[in-house]
Design brief:
TATA-Binding Protein, 4 strands, cytoplasm
Length: about 100
């Protein structure tokens, strides 16, 4: 189950949201990171997104100037994350290299 933390940041009224997504293995968390990292935010300003992996957990942190921009970015990310997870489930666990 994913852990979430949302709210208003203390840095000049910006909105922030954090999401931790556990995976069955470190390798699957790394695959998800590589699959989701290329998706840059379409806007040049107003929002930033940081993805990291620690052990079996993919962590994502957004900081946005407007709640609407944050909502759109998080929703889009969750759609992509769902597709990545479904694809990994369909093809089975990754094989060792």
């Amino acid at each position: 189950m994913a852990a979430m933390d949302g709210g208003t940041s203390h840095e000049r009224g910006k909105f922030q949201f954090s999401l931790d997504v556990p995976f069955p293995s470190t390798r699957e968390a790394a695959i998800a990171l590589r699959s989701l990292s290329p998706d840059r935010e379409p806007r040049k300003g107003g929002i930033s997104k940081e993805l990291t992996v620690s052990d079996r957990t993919l962590s994502v942190r957004w900081v946005a100037e407007e709640a609407r921009i944050l909502r759109v970015s998080v929703n889009s990310f969750l759609d992509h994350l769902s597709l990545v997870v479904e694809t990994m489930e369909m093809f089975g666990p990754p094989v060792s290299q």
